[in-house]
Amino acid sequence: MPEDTIKFEEAKQPSKGSDNNSSFLTGVLVPAVVILVVILGGVGTGWFLSDKTDGVAGVGTNISAAPGTDVVSGGKEFGLKDEGTFRDDAEGILEEGGIEGEGTHHLVRDGGPSKYVYLTSSVVDLSELEGKKVQVWGETFGAKKAGWLMDVGRVKILD
């Protein structure tokens, strides 16, 4: 039995105080500090770069029109005077709502819903012209549900 006692004494548990502090530092505190430094570095880099953009398109600047296009705003006409791209036109009362996900607005025209022109626009805010009689110029797109789907580039208020 004396050998058992010696083995038991050799297999003593290490003291908990110093190892717990070391385990806490390597297991929790160090990764937390690294994550915090990475987050702050990303935020700082983004802030720094946002101040340094010298008119680079799409980074910290607002682009009102494509280069080389005439912009019409104010009065009764809005949008781009790009007759090469926006060669199709239609007239009607502008109302909100597309058809089954196609278009954000539509033109109410004589002949009922089958004659509506469904509209979307990345150039003109159509919601500001709802309820008005307008003429629109745009580019026709193929559609699954809409009889006529147009991307509007220019709008003229008729009355």
UniProtKB/TrEMBL annotation:
Residue numbers spanned by region Disordered: 1-20
Domain of life: Bacteria
UniProt source species: Candidatus Blackburnbacteria bacterium RIFCSPLOWO2_01_FULL_40_20
Biased segments, Basic and acidic residues type: 1-13
Record flagged with keyword Membrane: yes
Protein name: Uncharacterized protein
Membrane-spanning residues: 24-49
Keyword annotations from UniProtKB, A to Z: Membrane, Transmembrane, Transmembrane helix
